[in-house]
Amino acid sequence: MSPPTATLGMSPAARYNHNLRVLRKRDPSITSIFDQFSHVAVYHHDGKSWQKNGYEGSMFLFERTKYPPYGFYVLNRVGVEDYIQPLYPEDDLIETEKYLIIRTFPDFLAARLAAIPPAPLGQVRHNFDPVYDIPNLHELDKTQKGRMVNLALWVMNDAKRDSMMRIMKRLALFAINFL
């Protein structure tokens, strides 16, 4: 008889705590997992077409104490490296029939973060500090944000739960731009 796997017989609370420990090994600022999906594949756009790039597995939406407060983590089952993606207010989420496309603007983000003065000596900024706010964010279009990088998430559908699109839309109310 073979030994039981680590997840067999785990209570939901034990599984949650185990998953949180795994994520916190990569990013100790992660404080909670607020949703997860059993199987997601990550695709990147190379300028001509979508390419699957070796990240597939369970995906966890997380909250953390550092800025930005939200992101997702793909526990990779097909490679040695996991995929972690913070979600910033200027990111665009685009819903398609099969994919959730996430458009990031790395140059805009870098310039925005570089313009934020350091926290006063001895103080730590909260991850929702108003210094991170982007004035008139919803009036900015993609051309004003400059160079963009596109990735897409494909998720195995589960009829018993809310779709990733619906969950990400709820997150977008607080953190990111949903188109």
Automatic annotation (TrEMBL):
GO terms of biological process kind: deadenylation-dependent decapping of nuclear-transcribed mRNA; deadenylation-independent decapping of nuclear-transcribed mRNA; mRNA processing
SUPFAM superfamilies xref list: PH domain-like
Stored InterPro entries: Dcp1 (IPR010334), PH-like_dom_sf (IPR011993)
Keyword set includes Cytoplasm: yes
An annotated GO cellular component: P-body
Record keywords: Cytoplasm, mRNA processing
Main localization, broad class: cytoplasm
The organism's place on the tree of life at top rank: Eukaryota
One Gene Ontology term of the molecular function aspect: mRNA binding
Cell compartment(s), UniProt: Cytoplasm
Family membership noted in the UniProt record: Belongs to the DCP1 family.
Name of the protein this chain belongs to: Uncharacterized protein
Source organism: Hebeloma cylindrosporum
